[in-house]
Amino acid sequence: MKNRVIFVVLSLFSLMFSVSMYTDWRGYDHGLFYWGQAVLPLDLPRHWMGLLGTEYESVLLYNIPDGLWMFALCAMILAVWGMSEMYNVGIWLFLALMSGVILEIFQYTGLVPGTFDWFDIYAYFIALGCIVFLSQIQNKLKWKAG
Asked: Shortest CA distance to 100 belongs to which of 117, 76, 75?
């Protein structure tokens, strides 16, 4: 049970942080995006963003939130399935990754509105790699303690 709580907390934190990055850091002050300030009020002044340079600013504002959303989804999959049935966990993690990649492909073809970005796909793979790495560490710590 304790192991699942860790993944729920990781999922919720990464989801809240990515929503804050997506809404607050971009400077949206209207409609749908205004609620992000209420979820996790993190302000990053726009002039600080200019210090990063345009290529890093783009990665921070667009690709990292997508990667964090994938991380949140994968962490929640681990929270739901636990570590007992790794075959099922692997299938669900693969489906999560493929859904992100397919949505990017649909954006490229115009079937889904949005902008295709290779860095989004890289962010999905990095997020999956991070959650698998964390689950392996968590398994080893559990094994040593038990």
From this structure: 117
What 3-state DSSP class applies to 108?
helix
CA-based nearest residue to 77, from 90, 68, 65, 64: 90
- In tens digits, what is the pLDDT along the chain, a chain of 146 residues? 677 888 999 999 999 888 877 776 666 554 455 555 555 555 555 555 666 666 677 777 788 999 999 999 999 999 988 766 778 888 999 999 999 999 999 999 999 998 899 999 999 999 999 999 998 888 777 655 44
Up-side HSE of residue 32: CA atoms within 13 Å toward CB? Answer: 2
Longest dimension (CA), the chain: 51
Provide the sign of the torsion angle of the four alpha carbons 94, 125, 79, 139, taken in this order: positive
| Domains of the chain, residue spans | 2-145
22 to 4, 27, 79: CA distances (angstroms): 27, 9, 25
The number of beta carbons lying within 10 Å of the beta carbon of residue 4 is 15
